[in-house]
TrEMBL record:
It comes from the Bacteria. InterPro entries: AraC_XylS_family_regulators, Homeodomain-like_sf, HTH_AraC, HTH_AraC-typ_CS, Tscrpt_reg_AraC-type_HTH. Keywords: DNA-binding, Transcription, Transcription regulation. This is AraC-like DNA-binding protein. SMART domains: HTH_ARAC (SM00342). Residues 278-376 form the HTH araC/xylS-type domain. SUPFAM superfamilies: Homeodomain-like (SSF46689). It holds the Pfam family HTH_18.
Length: 377
């Protein structure tokens, strides 16, 4: 029976129909040509490998088989564009509750998203197949991962146990699927190719096409980025400039270390000119209650985002997002002292997400709550 007859599914069929066809497919496939290894003949050997491996662990349902079959058929460009939804709900593919997501939305292309995924033993097992997309996923392990299995394009990828701080990269174009029987805790960075290209263009450098990251490599810089992001990935709200700054630093690091392309460091005095400092401070003061992006500030100074971040810190001694928080606090203290506006209104006018967020930040920086600070001394 020609295998090509089984590679096309019509839109509108139910998942049960796909699962039923998958059962028929597996039955027919195992009776026909189990030795087929030519990718041009279809994706069925890869599906069968997944089925055999997972079924030995009694973790693969027929519904999942149907999903595997659907994932391994060819996709149109429009379908690939739709797969960016992985960035918006990565936890769903791991059978986990919806997780908090940080976004770097400063660019015109798809968002770079950052998600923390945490699971206990036997919570995930076989992941749902991740549809192909023009994007990388960089994972940072926050605790040891003693055992897992990985398939790329249906072929088993050699992996070893990961230690705390280990990183790995998968190209979503390779249709990754994983078996995760143990507990894990990791941060995932979703890096769309189009956004990486735009970041590279802003820095006048070659875009990242491949990331030669060995599975389980330890990278102290990426680990430090992850630690800085942990509070923002819990309940606290992170300023957009904070996330943008870390994403820009991460992109520079990945390009310099894992692409094989020499990254030129910027030339110049390394500090902002007085007119640039004045312009940035004026922009921040005018947008305390709004969301500014790092590329916006860099463009106002006629600099690349990477150079601007470095120059701003060298000039002021702090990062742009820290300057923003300081100015928000100064404005809030002024309003508390000179007006009788409600604290909730002051919080919103100064760019905090709500009164609770404002109170936490104010108390951390001053040692007292806004209400106590407002009381006559």
């Amino acid at each position: 029976m020609p295998m090509e007859r089984h590679t096309h599914f019509r839109a509108g069929h139910s998942r049960q129909a796909y699962a039923t066809r998958s059962c028929i497919f597996l039955s027919c496939f195992t009776r026909t040509d189990c030795r087929a290894k030519d990718p041009a003949r279809g994706a069925f050997p890869s599906v069968l490998n997944l089925f055999n491996t997972a079924s030995r662990r009694n973790r693969l349902s027929w519904r999942t088989v149907g999903d595997l079959c659907l994932t391994h058929v060819r996709r149109t460009p429009d379908e690939n564009a739709m797969n960016a939804e992985y960035a918006g709900n990565a936890a769903a593919y791991f059978h986990l509750p919806e997780a908090r997501i940080l976004r770097s939305t400063s660019l015109h292309n798809a968002d770079i998203t950052i998600t923390r995924l945490t699971a206990t033993k036997n919570t995930v097992n076989l992941t749902d197949p991740i549809p192909p997309a023009n994007a990388f996923v960089l994972s940072l392990q926050l605790q040891p991962l003693p055992r897992h299995e990985l398939w790329l394009d249906g072929k088993r990828e050699p992996v070893t146990p990961y230690g705390r701080g280990a990183i790995s990269v998968v190209d979503l174009a390779a249709r990754p699927t994983a078996f995760l029987p143990t507990a894990f805790d990791c941060i995932q960075f979703y890096l769309p190719q189009a956004t990486l290209e735009q970041l590279a263009a802003a820095e006048d450098r070659a875009p990242i096409r491949e990331l030669a990251v060995p599975h389980g490599a330890h990278d102290p810089f990426v680990e430090s980025i992850g630690k800085l992001l942990l509070p923002a990935l819990s309940e606290a709200r992170a300023p957009r400039l904070f996330v943008d700054g870390l994403v820009i630093a991460l992109h520079h690091h990945l390009a310099a270390r894992y692409t094989g392309v020499r990254v030129r460091e910027p030339h110049g005095p390394g500090r902002l000119a007085p007119w640039q400092v004045a312009r940035v401070k004026a922009m921040i003061d005018a947008h305390l209650d709004k969301s500014l992006s790092m590329p916006q500030l860099a463009a106002a100074c006629e600099l690349s985002p990477w150079y601007f971040c470095r120059a701003f810190r060298m000039t002021t001694g702090i990062a742009p997002h820290q300057w923003l928080i300081r100015r928000r606090m100064e404005k809030a203290q002024e309003m508390l002292a000179k007006t009788d506006r409600p604290i909730a209104e002051i919080a919103l006018r100064c760019g905090f997400s709500d009164q609770s967020h404002f109170t936490r930040t104010f108390s951390r920086m001053t040692g007292v709550s806004p209400g106590a600070w407002r009381q006559p001394q």
